[in-house]
Every structure is written in C-alpha cells, then in structure tokens.
Specification:
This protein is α+β, with helices and mostly antiparallel strands. The protein is about 25% helix and about 40% strand. The chain is built from one helix and three strands. The chain has a three-stranded antiparallel β-sheet with strand order 1-3-2, with helices on one face. A hairpin with a 2-residue loop joins strand 2 (about 30-35) and strand 3. The longest helix is centred in the middle third of the chain and has 14 residues, at about 10-25. About 0% of the residues are buried.
C-alpha cells in the first residue's frame, strides 16, 4: 500500500507526526521524499504486504 502525503513548508511538523503514526502501525514502512512540485513537497510511504491473507 502506498500513502502519498502532500504538504507545504510550514506543515513539515504535521508530516512528521503522520509519518511516525504510520511507522508505529507498520514498522517496515519505507519513506521516500520526492522533489518539490508546484510549491508543495511530497512524501511517499510504502507499507509492504504481509503475506497472503486470503483463505
């Protein structure tokens, strides 16, 4: 699952709180910062799948 967080410079602290919450729930989460675009910054949080959940 990928979670994309879009924020401005002054919302950086809120982005860190969101990232920490996701990492508490899913410790294997990978974080990738992208280049600024149209005045906004972007972070992509990738939560890996945990095996086959279907029976």
């Amino acid at each position: 699952m990928k979670i994309r967080v879009t924020y401005s410079e002054n919302e950086h602290d809120k982005k860190l709180l969101h990232e920490a919450a996701v990492k508490r729930l899913f410790p294997d989460t990978k974080v990738r910062e992208t280049a600024p675009k149209d005045g906004f910054l972007h972070t992509v949080l990738t939560v890996p799948r945990t095996g086959n959940t279907a029976k």
